[in-house]
Automatic annotation (TrEMBL):
Lineage: Bacteria, Pseudomonadati, Pseudomonadota, Alphaproteobacteria, Rhodobacterales
Organism of derivation: Rhodovulum viride
UniProt xrefs under Gene3D superfamilies: Bacteriophage SPP1 head-tail adaptor protein (2.40.10.270)
Lineage: superkingdom: Bacteria
Protein name: Head-tail adaptor
Length: 113
């Protein structure tokens, strides 16, 4: 059964540029906007440093195509994606027949702080 590709997601990559501490300073730029299906896998709360935060884990499924294959070949943990304004950090990319699965986590933030 085919997943319902019902949302537009944008893959982003941080531009070049480093500060004196070798931290990335470049702006995030979109590398592709594609149709995808989202499957929520888990939602948990965690306490760290006296603060409680929510963490969501999801899998985004894309149809394998020339456009999806280009960015998907180079996607990795340094990249992220946007879905409905939320930022998702990419944790893994896997090809599965005619589909590409992108695993990602989000803390629910809408914009970069």
């Amino acid at each position: 059964m085919s997943p319902l590709l019902d949302r537009r997601i944008t893959f982003e990559r941080q531009g070049a540029g480093r500060n004196a501490l070798n931290e990335p300073t470049g702006a995030w730029a979109g590398i592709a906007t594609l149709w995808a299906a989202r499957t929520d896998l888990s939602e948990t709360e965690r306490a760290a440093a006296g603060q409680i935060g929510a963490v969501r884990v999801a899998r985004f499924t894309l149809r394998r195509s020339a456009l999806a294959e280009g960015p998907a070949r180079t996607l990795g943990p340094a990249d992220r994606l946007r879905d409905e304004g939320m930022i998702w950090n990419i944790t893994g990319v896997a090809a599965r027949g005619p589909w590409i699965d992108v695993s990602a986590v989000s803390t629910g933030r809408k914009e970069e702080a």
